[in-house]
Amino acid sequence: MQKTAFVAILGCPNVGKSSILNLLLGEKVAIVSDKPQTTRTRIMGVLTEAERQWVFTDTPGLHRPRNKLGEHMMHAVRGGMEGVDACLFVTEATGGATLRPEEELLLRDFARQKQTVILALNKVDLLENKVELAQRIALFARKYDFAAVVPLSAKTGDNLDALREELAALFEDPALHISEGFFFPEDTLTDQPERVLAAELLREQLLRLLDKEIPHGTAVAVDRMQENTTVAGEAILDIEALIYCERESHKGIIIGKNGAMLKQASTQARQEMEAFFGCKVNLQCWVKVKEGWRNREGMIRSFGLND
Ligand SMILES: Nc1nc2c(ncn2[C@@H]2O[C@H](COP(=O)(O)OP(=O)(O)OP(=O)(O)O)[C@@H](O)[C@H]2O)c(=O)[nH]1
Ligand SMILES: [Mg+2]
Prior knowledge:
With 307 residues, this protein is an alpha/beta fold. 36% of the residues lie in helices and 24% in strands. The protein has 10 helices and 10 strands. Strands 1, 2, 3, 4, 5, 6 and 7 form a 7-stranded mixed beta sheet that branches. Helix 3 links the parallel strand 4 (86-92) and strand 5 (117-122).
C-alpha cells in the first residue's frame, strides 16, 4: 500500500542539513555553502520509491535572531516541525561532548512533543578519531531517546545507506500513524517555483564568493524567466535577476573591479542553472541597494522570505 511520511530536517547552521536533503533526493533543491544561515525558508523535497513517499522539509539553521529576517527564519523552523511524523536532527560528528544551546532547546522541544527523532551525525570524514564520535553519541543518547543514531558524511556519501534504512523503518514503526496514499504525484521533486530555484542558485554563488556580512545581506529576485529559441533552433531560458544588498559600499564589492565579481558569480550561476534546467541559459544580473531590508517586513515579504 502506498504511504507518505513527513520528515523535518532540523539542526544548527552549517551542519549539512541541505547537503543531506540533496543527497537523499539525488538532485539539488536546496543551496549549500560554508556560510551559516544559507537556508532562509522551509524547502520541501519529495522522494518516492516504490510504495513509499517521503516529504522532507529542510529548515534554516537554529540561531538567535539578530534581525526580522532571522525571526522569520526561526518561525519557519518551528512551523517545519509541526505535524510531521518524524524529525531528522542533524549535528556534526565532530565536537565531542559539547552541545550548543540551540541544540539543548531543540531536544527539549522534541521531548515536549514526544517526537520520533533520527539523529544524524554528519561530516564523519572530518573526524580525527573514533573516540570523539563515541563521546558525542553517548552525550546525545543521554539527552534523548532517539529512534536511531546514524553517523554519516554528506560529502563522501559514507553511510547514506544506513540513513535510508532508518528512514524506511519509519514506515514500520507501529507508534507512528503514517498516512496512506501518496501526498504528491510520484514525479514531484520540490515545492520551489523555478524562479525561486534560479534566484537561489545565484545567491549560492554570492555566498561562496563574498565574505563577512555582505552575502548575508543579499537577496536575489528573478524578475523575468522566459523560454526562447536561439537562431540555431536551441531552447534557451532568458533570466533576469536582481541582486539586492544593504549598502552602496556592498554594491561596489558585489560588482567588483570592472564588474569582475558580478561576472564570475553570474557565469557560475548560469552554469548551475543550465545543469538544473537542462537547457541553455542567458542570465542578466543587476545590483540594487535596499538599506536595512533585513529589518523591513515589506521587503522581507516581497522577497518571499516571510513565514
Ligand atoms: N567535510 C564535510 N563537509 C560537509 C559535509 N556535509 C556538508 N558539508 C559542508 O558543510 C557546509 C554547510 O552545508 P549545508 O548543507 O549548507 O549546511 P546547512 O545545515 O544546510 O546550513 P544552513 O542552511 O546555513 O543552516 C557546506 O560547505 C558543505 O559543503 C560532510 O559530510 N563533510
Ligand atoms: Mg541549509
